[in-house]
Design a protein that fits this description.
Length: 658
């Protein structure tokens, strides 16, 4: 038997399945031709963002303007035809067609002329952003109701006079049938969809900012997205699974930023039982150290409301510290015994041991803490946390979004030679991979990251009431704040110290040696090799804000590692001097877009204001990167080989044509 026949026989089951989609040698050959042509196109544009932290308005705008790419396309296509002000207005229409179009229509005296010009300009921009894609890819992206017409218009050849008249007639018909508004909206959305092929979110969608739920809805509607979990994400994943300690943790953080909107309005969590309990038990208790941090433009900032939030925060914080004692006791392998703070308090001296050193406590009013059994919940506290657990587990929207995080997310991701993760690959001071022991097994490097990914899934998907689910939920909490958690990367989370101790010397959260060592290109290469990558690859990292205002460079290790946490969260703008980064990887190379602060969507729509983004091109390629050079290209080449084998199977009669 010939070599080709042997190969066909070995893959016969798969080839028969493939023949259902390509029932003749002609159809299989046509697909080979299409795929071979696709390999020669420039690679699609990838955008990388991290640490969005609930800043939904700024994120939505950057998603709409493709980190400034769409405005660049508008300027390139229409720069000689219309003024800068008109281009700004036209760009805003693309970003917010539903909101902007009615305002533009009100100003028109020649409605038909406006529609013709707007449709024509949108088609011109759309042709440019679609030029990287095959016609079949663009067809798949088209809205079904306008697919045929848009396909015709986007592939117009205006050099023929009769063709120009033909397409002009189509535009006239769109206007006359009162479809122009819907058509403009469809074109705007198509431009945004085609401008960025893939979106990578390198962790921390939750906390600090007001509406992470809105961001997750946007991501769920995106055509191609992956997410690398941050520690602020996994604690919410644990909360959705019903973990009491994770629920207490996310509420403590939300109250710290006076961010109740996402809890109550976003996810429909009932906070009334907690508020009632806090108002009763902490009514005459000192809560001065528990008042929310400051953005006066967010949340209800009336003194009476802030005082209630402070009471709620103290109530849930005490519950949280009690629950942490339980988790730490259940999991000695976490090596966090010194973090069980309620058991470290000397209630006669009102001092607490922090890393073996006693500190006087600034807040000694703990009405629900029994000095003999400080970790035990009172009956009222138990009722409150049980009610909250039910509310989190029954929130349809929260659990839908958490399932999306599991479906699209992971601890790390590798694509097109880039290694993406949020926090750190834990290292020792001497530059070797730190070792952790869980369930009597030792893990380092990639194996540790893989293990963390598996355990994170157990916490949500294991059967309710099982030991495996309990351990998985505890591990989600460990990933949130554990001293060697790859998603956290610090020695401790000093929440207790900041709330109960005035001596700031105990606040310091020592970073893992990773953050000092990544400036060394050899260390970065060691990490890349651990994940099967080489010298031309990159690590794309989030988690620790780059203090650009103090001269810190986000590009480290001679260009091998890029930190893309530029302070997207409004609370970090002053520290970082920027309002976030977008890393852009296209066929020409890599560039970092540095964003300026965003005021509001309302101002953007009304005044055509945009997020100003400076572009730092730090790596260019001598030749354009083609689809053939990407992971997708390798998959396509493998599919071409399968199709060639199918054609041979038809020609030899091993598989019959349908």
């Amino acid at each position: 038997m010939s070599k080709i026949c042997c190969e066909i026989e070995q893959n016969l089951k798969y080839l028969r399945l493939l023949s259902r989609d390509f029932p003749t040698p002609e159809t299989a050959s046509a697909e080979i031709i299409n795929l071979t042509a696709l390999l020669q196109l420039p690679k699609g544009t990838e955008h990388f963002m991290s640490d969005l932290h609930g800043e939904s308005e700024a994120f939505t705008h950057i998603l709409n303007n493709a980190s400034g790419v769409i405005r660049e396309k508008v300027d390139r296509v229409l720069g000689d035809e219309i003024s800068e002000q008109q281009r700004a207005e036209f760009s805003t229409l693309i970003y917010y067609p539903v909101q902007k179009l009615p305002a533009l229509l009100q100003k028109q005296t020649d409605l038909k002329g406006f529609y013709l010009q707007t449709l024509s300009h949108l088609l011109d921009v759309c042709r440019l952003v679609s030029s990287k894609h095959t016609r079949s890819f663009v067809r798949e992206a088209l809205p079904a109701e306008f697919a045929y017409i848009l396909d015709e218009l986007l592939h117009a050849h205006y050099e023929e006079h009769n063709k120009e008249a033909y397409y002009s007639t189509i535009l006239q018909s769109i206007i006359e049938t009162k479809q122009a508004d819907a058509f403009i909206e469809a074109l705007c959305n198509l431009i945004k969809k085609l401008a960025v092929l893939k979106l990578h979110i390198v962790g921390d969608l939750f906390d600090r900012g007001p509406r992470p739920d809105v961001i997750l809805d946007e991501l769920a509607a995106h055509h191609s997205v992956d997410i690398q979990w941050g520690n602020h994400d996994v604690v919410w994943m644990g909360a959705a699974s019903g973990s009491p300690v994770c629920i207490a943790s996310v509420l403590n953080t939300s109250f710290a930023y006076n961010n109740l909107e996402v809890i109550e309005d976003g996810y429909g969590i009932n906070l009334r039982p907690l508020a009632t309990f806090a108002d009763e038990v902490y009514k005459d208790v000192d809560v001065s150290r528990f008042f929310p941090k400051g953005d006066e433009n967010r949340g209800n900032c009336q003194p009476q409301r802030l005082a209630q939030v402070a009471r709620m925060r103290k109530a849930i914080a005490v519950i949280m510290f009690k629950l942490e004692c339980e988790v730490i006791a259940r999991n000695p392998e976490f090596q966090m015994q010194q973090r069980a703070f309620l058991q470290q308090i000397d209630f006669e001296k009102w001092s607490v041991l922090v890393e073996g050193k006693p500190y006087l406590m600034a807040d000694c009013e703990l009405p629900t803490v029994d000095p003999k059994n400080p970790q035990v919940l009172t009956a009222q506290e138990q009722t409150v946390i049980e009610t909250l657990c039910r509310s989190f587990m029954e929130s349809e929207r929260l659990n839908r979004q958490v399932r999306f995080l599991y479906d699209k997310g992971s601890v790390y991701h590798i694509e097109n030679g880039n290694l993406l993760y949020h926090g750190a690959v834990p290292l020792t001071e001497d530059g070797t991979f730190a070792q952790e022991t869980f369930e009597s097994n030792c893990y380092t490097g990639k194996a540790l990251m893989d293990y963390c990914d598996r355990r994170a899934r157990n916490g949500y998907f294991s059967q309710k009431g099982t030991d495996e689910r309990q351990k998985g939920q505890d591990f989600l909490w460990y990933l949130w704040c554990g001293h060697l958690s790859p998603l956290f990367g610090r020695s401790k989370m000093s929440t207790f110290e900041r709330l109960f101790i005035t001596d700031e010397s105990c606040y310091k959260e020592k970073k893992n040696p990773y953050y000092k060592l990544i400036h060394n290109p050899e260390i970065d290469l060691m990490i890349l090799k651990e994940f099967g990558l080489g010298e031309t690859s990159h690590i794309i990292n989030g988690h620790v804000p780059v203090r650009a205002a103090k001269g810190e460079n986000p590009i480290k290790g001679s260009g091998r590692l890029i930190v893309i946490d530029g302070g997207f969260c409004r609370a970090y703008h002053e520290k970082t001097g920027t309002a976030g980064y977008t890393l852009v990887y296209n066929s020409h190379g890599m560039s970092l877009r540095v964003h300026e602060p965003f005021e509001s969507a309302a101002k953007a729509i009304e005044q055509n204001s945009d997020i100003v983004s400076r572009v730092n091109v730090f790596e260019t390629n001598d030749e354009r990167i083609l689809v053939a050079n990407t992971d997708e290209g390798r998959e396509i080449q493998s599919r071409i080989q399968d199709l060639k084998l199918l054609v041979q199977a038809y020609h030899t009669g091993i598989i019959k044509q349908n």
